[in-house]
Amino acid sequence: MANGRAGGAGGDVVHGFPHLGTVRAAITALYRRITPDGLHAYAGSVAPADVAFADTDDLHLGAHRAARALVRQLRLPEARVIVTFRPMEHAASVELAAGPEYFVELNDRFRTHRRDIGAALAHEITHVLLHRLGLAFPDTRDNEILTDTATAYLGAGWLLLDAYREDAVSSQKLGYLTPEEFGYVLAKRARVFGEDPSPWFTSPQAYEAYGRGLQEALLDERRPPLVAAGRAGRHRYAKERRRYAQGDPDAAAPAGAGYAFEGGGGGALRVSFPCPTCRQRVRIPVRGRVRARCGLCRTVLECDT
What we know:
Layout: E1 2-4, H1 20-34, H2 36-39, H3 48-51, H4 59-73, E2 81-86, E3 92-95, E4 102-107, H5 117-133, H6 140-153, H7 158-162, E5 165-166, E6 171-172, H8 179-193, H9 204-220, H10 231-245, E7 260-263, E8 269-274, E9 281-285, E10 289-293, E11 300-304
Parallel strand pairs: 2-4
Antiparallel strand pairs: 1-3, 3-4, 5-6, 7-8, 8-9, 10-11
Helix pairs in contact: 1-6, 4-5, 5-6, 6-8, 8-9
């Protein structure tokens, strides 16, 4: 069984970007396993109307309707999704069987918190997809982060961010990513597919977290040696490049810069850095203004090395 987990009350919701390294590795893994062309099949997100759940809807019929919509969104084979409710520690679990039916169990609390049923189902049904793709990280928590990242990047994870709500007396969050990390993945997706998820958010806190995630995602596109890097970053880059070329043993990129120099000492000096789209490392010669193409996602990058 694969489990998703809801956040608790009060101060249990963690903020910021503590899992960003794993999130970025998950994005790279998706591009490697599904391929850029395959990912473009997910360019449109699941529509809010397809997973909307009113209190007047029949519980089981509504859950099955939302589950079918998510199966279609994730490009899984059409099959009957059996959704049941029972008391449990986590938000939901799914049986990773060969099919043709999918068995999902939801926490009993969703009987009365129906607006978040789609979010819980999205995470669990993504577990099915990753299982069928043979895509997994070895560590359990990292694998859950992979699942959240895939859910968001493949067009169903805006539901998980919208399930985040927090006020002075209570809080709720589904999934393992922080709200800001969900925002980051959704923003990375938006930059590739040109789809803005923010109009679908019903939670004000989700909208704010998306904004913070978007700012972090934009930073990926503004780091040296990319042309869009700011003046301060470009100045640091030039300084470290000169030091490395002169053989300074202490020359190193600033923490978090991402780029690293290679070669030199009579050979060609090269710089490696993460592609801002898929995070695969790109290696190019240091020779001024150049255009490079990422070998994984095929993004064309304007660089000043």
